[in-house]
Every structure is written in C-alpha cells, then in structure tokens.
C-alpha cells in the first residue's frame, strides 16, 4: 500500500509543478500541509520530495526550504516528467525540442540498424509494422505498435548507449506519435513511409534507411506544425494510447518515397505490405 501512496502522491505533486500551480522559485507548503492535502504520512511526503529532487524539479536546502527549479533543470528523459507535461498540455518549446532530438538520434540509429540488424531484429520490427497496418485497416491501437517499430530500430543498432536511450525516449516518442495519430489520415499516410524505412534496413542500405527515416521525421514535424499553427489548445496525452478508427488502405506510395531512390523491388514490397 505504501508504494501506491507514494506513486499517487508523486503523480499529484509532479503534475501540480508542471501545471504551474507552484511557480519556478516558489516554495512548497510545509510538510504538515502537504500531508493533509494528499492524505499521507510525513514519510511518504519526504520520499516523494526526494524523488522530485532526483528528477530535477525541486531543490531543498537549509534556510531556503523546498523550491521549484526552472524547467531547464528538469530531467526531460525521465518518463514521469514527460508524462506529466503531456497530461498538463504540450508546449511549443517541448515539441520543438522533441523534434530536434529525433533528427539527431534516429537517423544515426537507423544507419547502424541497416548495417547490424539481425534476423530476430527484423522479425520484431516486421511484427510492429504488421500491428500498425492492422490498426490502420481495422482500427485500434496504432501508437503502441508505432512505438515498438521505432524502439526496434534503435535496438537493432546494437549500440548499447542508443539501446539505453530508447528506454528514455519512449515517452517522448509517444507524444509525437499521439499527435500524428490524431490528425486525419495521419497513420494511413505514414504507413508506407515506415515500410520504406524497414525495406531499406532489410536491404542493408544505410544511406537509404537514413533518408527514409528523415522523410518520416519531417512528416511528424509537419503534423506538429499543423497543430501549432491552429488556434486550438495544444493536446494533452492521457495514460492510454488513443485508438484510431478504421482507415482506408493507402492506394499509392507517398511522393516522398519516390524521392528516396528506393529500388523498384523495395517500392513493390511497400505496396504489398
């Protein structure tokens, strides 16, 4: 039960900080008031504050109490921090940073995947793609399979640091995928682009794999810019992946694929999968 109390209180207080309830530089209420507000013991409050200090959200010290740190100090690779931000509402700065990170990390990882992917790696990425395709054609959870596709590519790089980074990137990538999944025909249009990435990896062509993932990332960038350019409030991402409705099967490969100089056999594969 104590773990449940800790988790629940951590989420509530973390959410309160990212929502701006406690401004940067502001002091948190004294422990007795926090205990009363959350209905937990001092032990739980102290452990939660330690966790938030470790995540870079808070600073504690003699004579200064417990204060909220600027967001530049927050650990943006921490899944909890990303989840709280997504729940509070995405910001243009957050989305810009995410897009720039993808442009740096994923092309390098995919190049390595095209050189090093094992039969098992390919099978896992194929399974993820099949799940995405099924979700587009029959409706369902597209985002989870999309995440597995990109995680599979990072793991197929067989670079230990990139593999470790894939764990930290999960929550960040999901934020981008949720946005694309909510845009009309977003998953349908991105499906052949994913196929192009996989075909290039299977063909052991690093340069083409890199170009293909860049087209995919640019597509996500367009989705994000579409959201930012609208006057609607930026979306919040819940704990559950957003299911998509049944979408018609893409009739043609995106024009972007033709620019990647993929062999005809690869384009044929893309149409048939």
TrEMBL record:
<dbReference type="GO" id="GO:0003700">
    <property type="term" value="F:DNA-binding transcription factor activity"/>
</dbReference>
<dbReference type="Pfam" id="PF07729">
    <property type="entry name" value="FCD"/>
</dbReference>
<dbReference type="GO" id="GO:0003677">
    <property type="term" value="F:DNA binding"/>
</dbReference>
<dbReference type="InterPro" id="IPR036388">
    <property type="entry name" value="WH-like_DNA-bd_sf"/>
</dbReference>
<keyword id="KW-0804">Transcription</keyword>
<dbReference type="InterPro" id="IPR036390">
    <property type="entry name" value="WH_DNA-bd_sf"/>
</dbReference>
<dbReference type="InterPro" id="IPR000524">
    <property type="entry name" value="Tscrpt_reg_HTH_GntR"/>
</dbReference>
<keyword id="KW-0805">Transcription regulation</keyword>
<dbReference type="InterPro" id="IPR011711">
    <property type="entry name" value="GntR_C"/>
</dbReference>
<dbReference type="InterPro" id="IPR008920">
    <property type="entry name" value="TF_FadR/GntR_C"/>
</dbReference>
<protein>
    <submittedName>
        <fullName>GntR family transcriptional regulator</fullName>
    </submittedName>
</protein>
<dbReference type="Pfam" id="PF00392">
    <property type="entry name" value="GntR"/>
</dbReference>
<feature type="domain" description="HTH gntR-type">
    <location>
        <begin position="3"/>
        <end position="71"/>
    </location>
</feature>
<keyword id="KW-0238">DNA-binding</keyword>
